[in-house]
Amino acid sequence: MTGAAGRIIIVGGGIAGLCAAVYAQGSGYRVEILEQHHSPGGLATSWRRGDYTFETCLHWLAGSNPSGTLHAEWREVCDIDSLHFVDHDEFVRLEDQHGGRLRIYTDVDRLEAELLSVAPEDEVEIRHFAGAIRQLADLPMPRLDEPWPARVASMLKMLPDLPLLWRLSHLSVEDYGRRFSPPLLRAFFFGGGGAEKLSVLALVISLAWMGNRNAGYAIGGSQAIIRLILERFLALGGHIRCEARVSRILTEGDVATGVQLEDGETIAADWVISAADGHATLHDLLGGAYTDRAFETAFARYETFPSYLQVSLGVARDLSQEPGYLTLVLDDAVEVDPETRLQTLSYRIFHYDPTFAPPGKTAVTCFLPTRNFAFWADLRRDDLQRYQAEKDRVAQAVIAVLERRLPDIATVIETVDVSTPATVVRCTGNWKGSMEGWLMTSDTGFGSLPRTLPGLERFMMVGQWVQPGGGLPSGLLTARAAVRAICREDHAPFLPEGSEREVAE
Ligand SMILES: Cc1cc2nc3c(=O)[nH]c(=O)nc-3n(C[C@H](O)[C@H](O)[C@H](O)COP(=O)(O)OP(=O)(O)OC[C@H]3O[C@@H](n4cnc5c(N)ncnc54)[C@H](O)[C@@H]3O)c2cc1C
Q: Which residues form the Amine oxidase domain (predicted)?
């Protein structure tokens, strides 16, 4: 037994690594985070180009409402109440090239009325859809670290919702979308881009939370959240090292004993937590020596969220009259790469975040999903000139589509930035450049993968690769559960911030 004076090394400073660090440092461990990139955040990131900040991650943070599910857990890792959240009335607007328009409101009554007005022939399905959003509005987030009695109590509370949860989790967005007639409504459920098997449950729950004003956008984006968690960790006395790439997790007699960095330096630890990519953790950092049947099944069978390009535009124009999130359904698909053609393009027009551009200007981003990460990674490695040319081609296509919607916009674009799946892999190390880990499908259900590996002691995994569906809450909740299990094993008190004493079993 080490007690809470032990040393914990955390591999990876994304949201999961940072949350684990706060929980562990707060419970008395000495924690060091090793992050391979030059700054923490992982996928929860943005970057600055001239006057503009380009956000990649944050659409919504589940748990933004002080009286809503998950808020109390966010409070344990950061001063979440110091953030300013925007709750959009309109989640997304879809438009075609022929004047067709569909608004997806976050208020379920307005959404239902809008859908009925564009598709009265689909009334039965629309009523079911709105009913599902209403029913799941108060669904508690299942807690991964609850002891059995509490878990049973939670399950009992969820009992009336279980049939609906089961049905929706076994329906893909693509199949669900086919139940509706208007192409714009189908495009809302699935507009193409490689996530067609995503369970529609994920979408319904997101809309339910937005309707509850518990999935707001934090001004400053994902880095505002990351900064707050990092501040809490540093204030507790923790340490983080950036540009420190772990190449091996060291073991002795089936016990994790520390890590080795790329430059050969070794660091000893009483516990190692990997908050890095799941595939790399098992196959590279642990050299394939430890595995679990659940992970083998997942690597062989589960689908990942796709990778993506992001075209970011610095626009010297006030676009505050435009929707914040605009999906354009195209007559002619845009070619992203040899295997990817997109029939819809989605633009985020960040007029609602004044920290992203000076007054009178607007940061705009376009997210282009692709599963052909290898094309971009190979091109960047083998032919930088062609890589650049392909990035320029995609950027011009994205601008041309926007120009049709916002005439003359091209004349006021003063910054263009393109990231690709090669960028995602380089900056975060995620398998296949995935944006969010495992897609939640009928295969995965809403269960999680193990946080420990059979035969390996004093090792834990956290983050989006142990919780299908991914997202920022997966980082928070898997981290909480892992550190709580570590404390239990060490007979040390688990002391999340705000709790007066050890959290009771
Ligand atoms: C476009 C986009 C939109 C999204 N929108 C939302 C949203 O609106 N709401 C939401 O909740 N979620 C959203 N997500 C998902 C969310 O960003 C991710 O699920 C979450 O950030 C993953 O966190 P993580 O800590 O598990 O993994 P990561 O963020 O991948 O962190 C892993 C970290 O480990 C580091 N690392 C890897 N290997 C090593 C190594 N060998 N040594 C040292 N360090 C290493 C990486 O550099 C990285 O910092 C979005 C993601 C994307 C890409």
A: 15-486
